[in-house]
């Protein structure tokens, strides 16, 4: 498998960004290769293309599968497992939202709920609970919104994002109307 200079640049960038996104560099590079390769790709091809050990590739593929970012693909007559990323970029985005919510927001919300169920013993605890309630409520809104996004079609998501600052203008107009 030959990687073009354009692909190499993007694979390197994904590797650097992987660590900022909660993945390691190798995992970011692997995912970039899978996303940027039109045909399903197997572990040996990934290992050869990225010059990483087969064992690192195997561990990375397990991690990408646990994030639901890749799909297993079988080629008739070939015993190897091949992998591909969803063709719909919006599906990848929805998957990332869901998986990050499960890994980051849900455990934090659970901790916040536990803290809010405790009886405050002093003013410091009362203040702490007030701040936790505010964070909890914000995170709950984000969770509800992410669920809505998850259930939207790719076309609706695209339209929503294209509205951009137009949504803010609609809200501003509504506020002006209600003040009258």
UniProtKB/TrEMBL annotation:
InterPro entries according to UniProt: ArsR-like_HTH, HTH-GbsR_regulator, HTH_MarR-typ, MJ1563, WH-like_DNA-bd_sf, WH_DNA-bd_sf
Any GO molecular function: DNA-binding transcription factor activity
SUPFAM superfamilies per UniProt: Winged helix' DNA-binding domain
Top-rank lineage group of the source organism: Bacteria
Regions crossing the membrane: none
UniProt entry keywords in alphabetical sequence: DNA-binding, Transcription, Transcription regulation
Coiled-coil region(s): none
All copies of domain HTH marR-type, residue ranges: 21-80
Family statement drawn from the similarity comment of this UniProt entry: Belongs to the GbsR family.
Name by which UniProt lists this protein: HTH-type transcriptional regulator
């Amino acid at each position: 498998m030959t990687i073009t200079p354009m692909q190499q640049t993007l694979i390197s960038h994904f590797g650097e960004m992987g660590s900022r996104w909660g993945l390691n560099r190798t995992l970011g590079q692997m995912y970039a290769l899978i996303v940027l390769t039109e045909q399903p790709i197997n572990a040996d091809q990934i290992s050869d293309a990225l010059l990483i050990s087969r064992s690192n590739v195997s561990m990375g593929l397990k991690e990408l599968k646990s994030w639901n970012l890749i799909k297993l693909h079988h080629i008739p007559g070939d015993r190897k497992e091949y992998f591909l990323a969803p063709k719909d970029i919006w599906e990848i985005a929805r998957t990332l939202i869901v998986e990050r919510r499960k890994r980051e927001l849900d455990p934090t919300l659970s901790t916040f709920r536990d803290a809010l169920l405790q009886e405050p013993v002093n003013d410091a605890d009362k203040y702490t609970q007030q701040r936790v309630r505010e964070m909890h409520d914000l995170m709950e809104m984000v969770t509800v919104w992410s669920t809505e996004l998850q259930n939207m079609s790719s076309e609706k998501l695209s339209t929503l994002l294209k509205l951009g600052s137009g949504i803010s203008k609609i809200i501003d107009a509504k506020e002006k109307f209600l003040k009258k």
